Amino acid sequence: MMLEKFSLAGKVAMVTGCNTGLGQGMALGLAAAGCDIAGVSRRPARETAAGCDIAGVSRRPARETAAKVHALGRRFVAIEADLASAPPQALVTQTVDALGRVDILVNNAGIIRREDALNFSEQDWDAVMNLNLKALFFLSQAVAKQFIAQGWGGKIINVASMLSFQGGIRVPSYTASKSGVLGLTRLLANEWAPFGINVNGIAPGYMATNNTQALREDAERNEEILARIPAGRWGKPEDLQGPVIFLASAASDYVNGYTLAVDGGWLAR
To answer: At how many degrees (to 10) do helices 136-150 and 172-192 cross?
Structure first.
């Protein structure tokens, strides 16, 4: 009986940024638990011969995630959009038109820019803040309105970061945005709990993704990071599957405004 509370059978989840990495891992975890998935991802950027955009980030099409979701017996709808500029209500409407409802939102999409604070540009500041924080808020708002219209509440899961708790270096806009995600998660939980909407967060630790490729390839920095992680390894996308299923399911109905660190013990050191 208890395990039934973790089932997501018949639910629909919107997952942003699910073509690769953590977003794909969470989408597959939700699908394995019973969810149909609306994957909201950016249109392919200008690519190099290596299949990467000019920032070196892979832009594999959503068909890879779609194939893996279909293999689990669930439906997948790909929604291509630039979250920094797309009307949030249009994304919700596309999801509902295709899958009939929406029960879960995972705000995973995000970017990072690295530069010393003394030299950090306004352009890089705005790009990160617009996607990581502004887009997250307004998509959450649109989905919350849909939850209320449906009449049975829902779950919003925001992807935060270790830099929601720490300062870091050379990533001022990322630190500001992820600190904002933690605070916004608490505020939205306060306001929307009366509607049966749970808003919580997941703060991944050092994960093996595109964003950390440079760190992992730097032998000295990689060794320093691993020495600080009690688990002794970088995290993997599948490490977020259990936490996201929990926060998306009835098992977490009395969890509101909490950001769960999935970090191998990094913050405990």
So the answer is: 20
Asked if 29 contacts 35 with a C-beta cutoff of 8 angstroms, the reply is no
> What is the per-residue pLDDT across 164-214, written as a single tens digit (0 to 9) for each?
999 999 999 999 999 999 999 999 999 999 999 999 999 999 999 887 888
Q: Are 161 and 205 in contact (CB under 8 A)?
A: no
CB 129 within 8 A of CB 173: yes
HEC readout, the chain:
CHHHHHCCCCCEEEEECCCCHHHHHHHHHHHHCCCEEEEEECCCCCECCCCEECCCCECCCCHHHHHHHHHCCCCEEEEECCCCCCCHHHHHHHHHHHHCCCCEEEECCCCCCCCCHHHCCHHHHHHHHHHHHHHHHHHHHHHHHHHHHHCCCEEEEEECCHHHCCCCCCCHHHHHHHHHHHHHHHHHHHHHHHHCEEEEEEEECCECCHHHHHHHHCHHHHHHHHHHCCCCCCECHHHHHHHHHHHHCHHHCCCCCCEEEECCCHHHC
Closest C-alpha among 234, 230, 229 to residue 208:
234
Query: Which tokens in the block code for residue 139?
Result: 């998509």
Annotated active-site residue 206? The verdict is: no
CB 170 within 8 A of CB 117: yes
pTM above 0.70, yes or no: yes
In contact, 64 and 237? CB cutoff 8 Å? no
Please check whether residue 112 is in contact with residue 174, taking contact to mean a CB–CB distance below 8 angstroms. Answer: yes
- Give dist(CA 159, CA 134) in Å, integer: 14
